[in-house]
Amino acid sequence: MPSISLTRHLIEEQRLGHVTPDLRLLLEVVARACKRISVAVGKGALGDVLGEAGGDEASINVQGEAQKKLDVISNEILLEANAWGGHLAACASEEMEHSQQIPDAFPRGNYLLVFDPLDGSSNIDINASVGTIFSVLRCPEGVTAAEDHHFLQPGSSQVAAGYCLYGPSTMLVLTIGHGTHAFTLDREQGSFVLTKAHMRIPEQTREFAINMSNQRHWEAPTQAYVDDLLAGKDGARGKDFNMRWVAAMVGDVHRILTRGGIFIYPWDRKDPSKPGKLRLMYEANPMAMLVEQAGGAATTGRERILDIAPTSLHQRVPVFLGSKDEVDTATRYHLQHDSAAA
Ligand code: AHG
Ligand code: MN
Ligand code: MN
């Protein structure tokens, strides 16, 4: 069987009417940028890529988080690649307070791209997995100058979503609304090769992922749900659960797409002004689309993530995603708690 490259896969999807020529080419540009990020990440201590950005004066992004050099490098690679692509109206990123329009001098298109250029960046300095997460939306009709509010569309409007995982191998996982497919970078050939078409997340699981160190800050239904997981065979769930935490959402979601599980970053009381840690537009929404397209589910613990009407570019949300039955169970704990309290 000849191998199927990302390019061939997308051309076939175009023939089936699943993707426009412009979106296909935009995804090729994103994939090319991810290859460059993969090279930068892979240099490790041999390149000038590790550590904090900004030297002595640590640079802080719009989230109030310290930027790593690779956060900045990855952001620039994505911006530069897309400026010349000709398929975008504007870009937005975790690392930029506002969206950036494609400048007048460059060719412009009808899509909006939003990304987390480097997810899990605290893993960089320990040589563990990191990734890039991206989401593509349509620019509303008639808009000639795209601004932040044009990005504020529910996740169900995404026309494509994906991530690139920089692990022992580099993998691109993509959906255009017709299944979730995984491609592995062939480093010799320089192309992404389809290695798993139509990924399916098992509906049931015995594995969960949550940062347990925040346990005391969680709300009651999250506490109750995780208590029952920990009680194992002797508790209400009647089975033992294992736990994994990569500290990079891309890594945890990739494991879940591969063998099932539930990933949770709940609301907590650590900073009550923040409704969760993860960002809706470039973490929760693209991952929710990938997971749903693989037969899984994604909620805030109460509502479907893809139904949320965003109110700001860097909005945070609680995230429960993965194996469908498990996400439904976790969501039920929260909804039952709410109706008992009402
Ligand atoms: P980023 O590096 O883009 O800021 O994202 C990090 C996120 C996510 O990838 C991961 O699941 C989570 O933060 C890890 O949080 P803890 O530090 O609480 O483990
Ligand atoms: Mn992230
Ligand atoms: Mn990031």
TrEMBL record:
Q: Where does Mg(2+) 1 bind?
A: 94, 116, 118
Transmembrane regions: none
Keywords of the record, alphabetical order, are: Carbohydrate metabolism, Cytoplasm, Hydrolase, Magnesium, Metal-binding
Which InterPro entries did the record assign?
FBPase_C_dom, FBPase_class-1, FBPase_N, FBPtase
Q: Where in the cell is it found?
A: Cytoplasm
Top-rank EC class of the record's enzyme: hydrolase
GO MF annotation terms: fructose 1,6-bisphosphate 1-phosphatase activity; magnesium ion binding
Domain (Fructose-1-6-bisphosphatase class 1 C-terminal) ranges: 201-334
Short name of one Pfam family: FBPase
In short, the EC number is: 3.1.3.11
Cofactor or coenzyme needed:
Mg(2+)
Which pathway?
Carbohydrate biosynthesis
Positions contributing to Mg(2+) 2 binding: 116, 119, 283
Keyword Transcription in record: no
Q: How is the cofactor bound?
A: Binds 2 magnesium ions per subunit.
- Gene Ontology CC terms: cytosol
Which residue ranges does the record assign to the Fructose-1-6-bisphosphatase class I N-terminal domain?
Answer: 5-196
- Set out the biological process GO terms recorded for this chain's protein: fructose 1,6-bisphosphate metabolic process; fructose 6-phosphate metabolic process; fructose metabolic process; gluconeogenesis; sucrose biosynthetic process
Binding positions for substrate per the UniProt entry: 119-122, 211, 277
Q: Does the keyword Zinc apply?
A: no
The record lists the catalysed reaction(s) as:
beta-D-fructose 1,6-bisphosphate + H2O = beta-D-fructose 6-phosphate + phosphate
Fill in the subunit field for this protein: Homotetramer.
The Swiss-Prot or TrEMBL record describes its family as follows: Belongs to the FBPase class 1 family.
| NCBIfam families xref list | PRK09293.1-3, PRK09293.1-4
Q: What is this protein called?
A: Fructose-1,6-bisphosphatase class 1
Lineage in the entry? Bacteria, Pseudomonadati, Pseudomonadota, Gammaproteobacteria, Lysobacterales
